[in-house]
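re: ur question from yesterday

yeah so i grabbed the chain u mentioned. its 140 aa long if i counted rite. heres the sequnce exactly as i have it in my notes:
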Amino acid sequence: MNVEFIDTNILVYAHDSANEKKHNQALELIERLELTNAGALSTQVLTEFYAVGSRKLKFTPQELSDTIADFSHWKLHRPTQADILASISLQQAAKISWWDALLLNSAIQIGATVLWSEDFQTHRRFGDLQIKNPFLDSPL
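ran it thru and got these structure tokens back, copy pasting raw so excuse formatting
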């Protein structure tokens, strides 16, 4: 089964229509992952989305709860202490930020083949995982 992991920025664009093109592309990606049951994310993604949603998007706590609940059937990675240690190694080896390393580790641990994000170098590979930017690469 194909698993594709999404970064927080994908969720934010899907719920923020300020940039119509990115909004539509993010929605298309999420809809495809919904239909194919291939979507994955982590507790980090959901908590970051909550923070951005309440601060930037001005969502109410209920709106955020409802939106987060919409992803309850997606594959969810819950980082453990071992994942934090692995993320430290990834951060050092890949020379990336701490939060990116934690996200990357979650995508690897859940068995994703694609990590959709605009924050990483697109097409970079980490073993079987490839980074793709849905705003540069077709998400369909």
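noticed a couple things. The helical segments are 8-14, 20-36, 43-55, 61-69, 81-94, 98-109. also The mean pLDDT is 94.
anyway ttyl
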